[in-house]
Design goal:
Number of domains: 3
InterPro entries: Cardiolipin_synthase (IPR022924), CLS_N (IPR027379), PLD-like_dom (IPR025202), PLipase_D/transphosphatidylase (IPR001736)
Pfam families: PLDc_2, PLDc_N
CATH topology of the largest domain: Endonuclease, Chain A
Strand order of the largest sheet: 4-3-2-5-6-8-1-9-16-15-14-10-11-12-17
CATH class of the largest domain: Alpha Beta
Subcellular location: Cell membrane
Membrane topology: Multi-pass membrane protein
Helix content: 40-55%
CATH superfamily of the largest domain: Endonuclease Chain A
Protein name: Cardiolipin synthase
């Protein structure tokens, strides 16, 4: 079989055969119906009395299970379980604790890189546990092709190691070109470690992975779901996109690896994305996140030792960076296994401090009720709140899910803009008061807030960097069409039905 998608199709066929056999086993359709209804009753009782997910999510699951029991029960067992049921080995827990202690010691020894916190950065430090670091030179890359070429150039300069994590990596022209660079560097003695998400990159051929491994590249697939025993993990994905080179340079943001991110696609005229190139102390936090993901996929007691032994190579904080720029950056990350929703809470705290304006660009705008209320309340209190969403979607359910919130936003005074209808807006960034910006992999949606592993850089101004990001937002607004109550009234019935259905099923995520 060429890739994991074919494996999943085979597994699905096996499941259908099992269901058919089970049906044959029962004497009549009535007995089978009673059995399914009994399972539905048990699941509904669990949701009502035991499960701790939000009320809207519970209601959506109850609706799906009671009205579409066969499909609803199957989906619940596949994607409905909660992350707190996940169990980690004692080795993984011990390694995670060792890495936390190592990072704390590293920052304690180099306290000069920690920026004297503003009020908001101090509060985000309490929420996340991550310090804002100064002395960075950060480049804002608002064009996919330019960001890709910068990445290629930095990869070609690697001398010691390359670490990559991608939610989507495609074996197309772009993916093959970058893979050739990785293979060449591995043959030169550079240690290359590569993590890809098993669902986001489900179409990666086995031959492609084998070619990387044969060149000496260490490859890990994040949470395989190509067997029934692992299928319950399918809903908790690693959505991060980051590259760390020699512990000195990092690339992160919204861009995955594939032709469309460079606007080489027939579906869209232009693919609007945003990445950051970070040179300086903040790369240690991206290194830290990568290593957390790496040990998550390993149960070797000594998995961290090579990184500790070569500290100057993996965490080269002694290096001085010359230049006038000294950007302040606070890396914040989170995932479904955290006890708190760290990234969402950080964004909400930032919005709560806004005095003049909140500007958001997100390809997938499906907020939970609390996040939506914060945005509406800010607009109702007189702040200028602007939101840019795609004018053309890459997936129907996400596109109509975005649009289902427009009426409530407009009624509160939020300015909503639809990006160029022939292009796709995939960047994920926001700005508050023109003084703080956040760029990363985090969409403004339930999945990024509750289900995915995400990472974002919070950038503090006033600075040329934050001003540049705000100028880009204003340019994105110029490339967009402002929506109004009148345009909403002109929607046809089919569009409204699609929006309402998409909105209703988003809590199932």
């Amino acid at each position: 079989m060429k890739n994991k998608l074919q494996r999943l199709l085979v597994i699905s066929l096996i499941f259908i055969c099992i269901c058919f056999a089970a049906y044959q086993f029962f004497d009549s359709l009535i007995v089978l119906t009673i059995f399914v209804e009994a399972v539905s009753f048990v699941l509904c009782g669990y949701l009502v009395f035991i499960d701790k997910r939000s009320s809207t999510s519970k209601f959506a699951w109850l609706f799906a299970i009671l009205f579409f029991p066969y499909v609803g029960i199957l989906l619940f067992f596949l994607v409905g379980s909660k992350p707190n049921f996940r169990r980690f080995s004692s080795v993984q827990k011990r390694n995670e604790q060792l890495l936390h202690q190592y990072m704390a010691q590293l920052l304690n020894e180099h306290s000069e890189i920690i920026n004297e916190p503003y009020s908001i950065s101090k509060e985000l430090t309490y929420l996340s546990g991550n310090e804002p670091l100064k002395g960075n030179r950060i480049t804002h890359l608002a064009d996919g092709e330019k960001a890709y070429q910068e990445l290629l150039k930095d990869l070609q300069s690697a001398r010691h190691h390359i670490h990559l994590m991608y939610f989507i990596y495609k074996a197309d022209e772009t993916g093959l070109e970058l893979a050739d660079v990785l293979i060449a560097k591995a043959k030169q003695g550079v240690k290359v470690r590569f993590i890809y998400d098993s669902v986001g990159s489900i179409k990666l051929p086995f031959e492609f992975i084998s070619k990387l491994k044969e060149a000496g590249i260490s490859v890990r697939s994040y949470d395989l779901v190509n067997s029934p025993s692992l299928s319950t993990r399918i809903n908790w994905r690693n959505h991060r996109k980051m590259v760390i080179i020699d512990g000195q340079i990092a690339h992160m943001g919204g861009m995955n690896l594939g032709n469309e991110y460079r606007s080489i696609t027939d579906k869209f005229k232009y693919w609007r994305d945003t990445n950051l190139r970070i040179l300086g102390p903040s790369t240690i936090y991206l290194q830290y996140v990568f290593l957390l993901d790496w040990l998550f996929l390993n149960e070797d007691e000594q998995v961290l030792q090579p990184f500790f032994d070569a500290r100057q190579s993996y965490f080269p904080l002694e290096k001085e960076y010359s230049g006038e720029r000294s950007d302040i950056c606070q890396i914040i990350f989170g995932g479904p296994y955290d006890s708190e929703r760290i990234l969402r809470d950080s964004i909400m705290e930032l919005f709560g401090k806004a005095e003049r304006s909140i500007q958001i660009a997100s390809p997938y705008f499906v907020p939970d009720e609390e996040s939506l209320s914060v945005i509406r309340r800010a607009a109702r209190c007189g702040l200028k709140v602007q939101l840019i969403i795609p004018g053309k979607g890459d997936r129907a359910i996400s596109y109509y899910g975005n649009n289902s919130f427009i009426d409530r936003l407009l009624s509160a005074g939020v300015e909503v803009y639809a990006y160029d209808s022939e292009s796709f807006l995939h960047c994920k960034y926001l700005i508050v008061d023109g003084l703080v910006a956040s760029v990363g992999s985090t969409n403004f949606d339930i999945r990024s807030f509750h289900l995915n592993h995400e990472i974002s850089a919070f950038l503090y101004g006033p600075s040329a960097l934050v001003s540049e990001i705000q100028a880009q937002f204003e340019e994105d607004v110029r490339q967009s069409k402002r929506l109004s109550s009148e345009t909403q009234k002109n929607r046809n019935v089919a569009t409204v039905v699609k929006e309402r259905l998409s909105e209703f099923f988003t809590p199932l995520l």
